[in-house]
Amino acid sequence: MNTTKMSQEIKMDEAGTDKQWREVSTMEKDLNTMKSALTFSQRVAICFAAGAIGALAVVLFSHVLFQLGLSATLGVKAPVSLKSPDIYRPLFWGGLWGILFGLFIKTAWNRLYLVGFLYVLAPVLALFLFFLPMSGAGFFGLHKGPAFTVYLLLINLPFGIVTALTARAIIGKNP
Known about the structure:
The chain is mainly α. It has helices at residues 3-12, 18-35, 40-68, 70-73, 84-103, 112-119, 121-135, 146-171.
């Protein structure tokens, strides 16, 4: 039985079913909303969450590289901490970069994975040209050596593609 028939039957029933009519009506509205494209704010919220998950992938990838011994080879002594205050900063910044990704996700939808793979360049360039010099590591982190720069580039690679995959999984077929 489809929801239209269901709502008609409930509407014609006794006075005690008025509450049931409102519940079915809300279900129909939710179903119609899901079929239409997402609003701008919904895309931004979804992409914030996708960016936070992308940042979590970066943090976990740092632990994988550390366990493999590649981090020590590139001059990094410890992975990103998973403890309480330290983990929130990358997740929050990943969410903010995810919002920026959400601003143009609708136009990039047909090539989302390619755009996601290339999108990592935006946060990495901000890291290399703004955040590292502000922290005293110099442009591209070269005060800590070229191996550190390679490490930062390598460690951030999963961000864009995981953000794109997560956004696609949450949004579905229509952005």
